[in-house]
Design brief:
Layout (H helix, E strand, L loop, with lengths): L17 H30 L3 H23 L13 E3 L4 H11 L1 H25 L5 H21 L11 H19 L8 H15 L6 H5 L19 H31 L9 H21 L4 E3 L1 H11 L5 H13 L3 H8 L3 H24 L5 H19 L2 H6 L1 H7 L2 H19 L4 E7 L4 H14 L4 H21 L6 E9 L3 E8 L6 H8 L8 H12 L2 E7 L2 E9 L3
Antiparallel strand pairs: 1-2, 3-4, 4-5, 5-7, 6-7
Helix pairs in contact: 1-2, 1-3, 1-11, 1-12, 1-14, 2-10, 2-12, 3-4, 3-9, 4-9, 4-10, 5-9, 5-14, 5-15, 5-18, 6-7, 6-14, 7-14, 9-10, 9-11, 9-17, 15-18, 19-20, 20-22, 21-22
Length: 573
């Protein structure tokens, strides 16, 4: 049938054989382990917290990654994304985490991780209200600033190893990057997924040639063992350093939530045979689940988790298995691996230059992901200015913290941080555009057919005030009528609900938002269905077809407790 996603053999809510879920789950584990272990290893070694912390933090990161992936596959009320969103240690926290450890200690880091993760839990419940501030432009800028900051750290760690030639570490890093890049550029299909891992293996071979690799840790480790917990505790008396660092953690945590949103949306698009519109209730559940696992990370003294969306989408596309049992299988296997010390020891023997090079590749891809996010809604001149100024401020301060040198103290640390100031620039400019735009019009009433005359008069007055001609005014009124009619047909068996209509005039168009608590059916799903049909005989389908014809864009987003229908109508004077 037209519009079907080819290759999906098991949808999320379908059961699949245990052998299938276990096989696909094992593939997911092999893809998730390297970024989780290597990110945590780099952080632990760079922080100087010792071998005990290195061993425990890697084990804890693997366990929490397993819990996070299983929780993302679940649907526990408002917790869980209902899809196989593979999760692991968030490399975006490396820079701010190292700053926290160096400035205030491990206990302050754990407290900051917990507090910033609670923010994600809050964001999971109020995504709908932040949609005009946390825009794709702001989200993309944050991701690009995070990637640039970590690139500087990993490059700075490439130095002369003790007892090895001066060029040994740079050479090993170059081999790692080359191995990943060559395979990534030339391989096709599922083989491309393994390019980072192949790069790591090539780097380890090169490290062995330079005498930078030792397998003694693997030989000394037992085959089976129980992890020895080590919880560093919290700093319950926050000082000035804590308050200076907190905004940085909140920004990265918000970026993590945004990344989880993107991963959940992308995964929903590829997990069903027939195309569906994103269910933002599941997106909220995914963000909340990641927040819960962030709290667990803080308790364990590790960096929080985030989603590996590209990996998750690729795994679903290549295997065709989207059943939630796969997520459970990945989680179980990841937790089980922590009881095999020899496997963990093997992962911990990967040399520093290999880890640095691996993260350099990953951060390069994160920068591209941020750029794509910026382009998501187009890059018109105002958005381009926001991106340019924000990156100039953020990257400039990351290279030279001039403000900290001038002011010093807590405010110097806060205002001199490139990530903080770059993000603040993007947010303030976005808010300025929002408040300086033409005044929005608002109408609130009951969701029933008696609302039609009020909506019609509201839209007619709006069109007159902005000088639209008669044809454009009629089209705007017609779209309002058909939008209300479609919502009522979906909600015909429900008690009357509150309906809020918000109109935002723009250049040559009006954006209408209908906010209401609605039934399960989704307008945009119906429009996608109609786009693949040649006949329309039912009155319901005729109504939706007319709405699609007269409106330039129709979007329907589901959140817990509210549905938001956005319609754009073009007009002229």
């Amino acid at each position: 049938a037209v519009g079907l996603v080819e290759g999906i053999t098991h949808e999320p809510d379908e059961k699949c054989p245990l052998t299938v879920s276990a096989t696909v789950g094992l593939q997911g584990v092999l893809l998730a382990i390297p970024p989780t272990v290597l990110t945590m290893s780099l952080f632990a070694r760079a922080s100087g917290l010792g071998e005990r912390y290195l061993a425990w933090s890697v084990l804890a990161a693997i366990i929490i990654s397993g819990i996070a992936t299983a929780l993302q596959a679940a649907r526990l009320g408002r917790l869980g994304g209902g899809h196989n969103l593979v999760s692991g240690t968030a490399s975006g926290f490396v820079a701010v985490g190292l700053l926290a450890v160096n400035e205030a200690g491990l206990e302050t880091l754990t407290t900051l991780v917990v507090v910033s993760s609670v923010l994600q839990l809050a964001l999971g419940g109020c995504l709908r209200w932040l949609r005009r501030i946390i825009t794709p432009v702001v989200s993309g800028v944050v991701l690009m600033l995070i990637s640039v900051g970590i690139m500087q750290i990993v490059v700075a760690r490439l130095g002369a190893a003790e007892g090895a030639p001066a060029l040994a570490e740079p050479a090993v890093a170059a081999v790692t990057v080359a191995g990943a890049a060559v395979l990534g550029l030339r391989a096709k299909g599922v083989l491309r997924l393994w390019s980072p891992l192949v790069g790591v293996l090539a780097g380890c071979v090169a490290a062995g040639a330079f005498g930078l690799y030792s397998a003694q840790r693997v030989l000394d480790a037992p085959w089976i063992g129980v992890p020895e917990p080590w919880f560093p505790g919290f700093d319950l008396t926050p000082d000035r350093q804590f308050w200076a660092l907190l905004p940085m953690f909140l920004i990265v945590s918000t970026a993590t939530a945004i990344k989880t949103v993107g991963g959940s949306v992308a995964l929903q698009r590829v997990s069903w045979r027939e195309p569906r519109v994103t269910d933002y209730r599941l997106v909220q559940g995914a963000v909340s689940a990641n927040g819960v696992c962030g709290v667990l990370s803080g308790i364990a003294g590790t960096l929080p988790t985030w989603s590996f969306e590209a990996m998750s989408v690729s795994l679903t596309n290549f295997t065709g298995v989207a059943a939630r049992r796969v997520g459970y299988a990945i989680g179980i296997v990841l937790v089980a691996l922590t009881f095999l010390p020899k496997v963990t020891a093997l992962l911990l023997t990967i040399p520093d230059p290999v880890i640095s090079a691996y993260l350099l590749v990953i951060m390069g891809m994160l920068f591209v992901e941020g750029f794509r996010t910026v382009l998501q809604d187009g890059l018109e001149p105002r958005k381009a200015l926001i991106v340019g100024l924000s990156l100039a401020v953020g990257i400039g301060l990351q290279g030279e913290n001039a403000i900290a040198d001038l002011i010093g103290g807590t405010w110097g640390t806060l205002l001199g941080d490139g990530l903080t100031m770059g993000t603040l620039t993007a947010v303030l400019l976005t808010v300025f555009i929002e408040v300086s735009s033409p005044r929005r019009r608002r109408l609130e009433l009951e969701l029933n057919m008696n609302a039609l005359p009020k909506i019609d008069g509201f839209l007619e007055t709006l069109a007159t005030s902005i000088g639209w001609d008669e044809a454009s005014t009629s089209r705007l009124r017609f779209v309002g009528e058909e939008s209300l009619s479609s919502l009522l047909e979906m909600n015909e068996d429900e008690a009357p609900r509150r309906l809020i209509v918000v109109a935002r005039p723009g250049a040559g168009l009006v954006e209408l938002e209908f906010l209401a608590v609605l039934a399960e059916e989704n307008i945009q799903d119906q429009l996608a269905y109609l786009s693949n049909q040649t006949d329309a005989t039912e009155q319901r389908e005729v109504s939706l077809r007319l709405l699609r014809h007269f409106a330039s864009a129709v979007r329907h987003r589901k959140y817990s407790g509210i549905d938001i229908v956005t319609v754009e109508v073009e007009g002229s004077r």
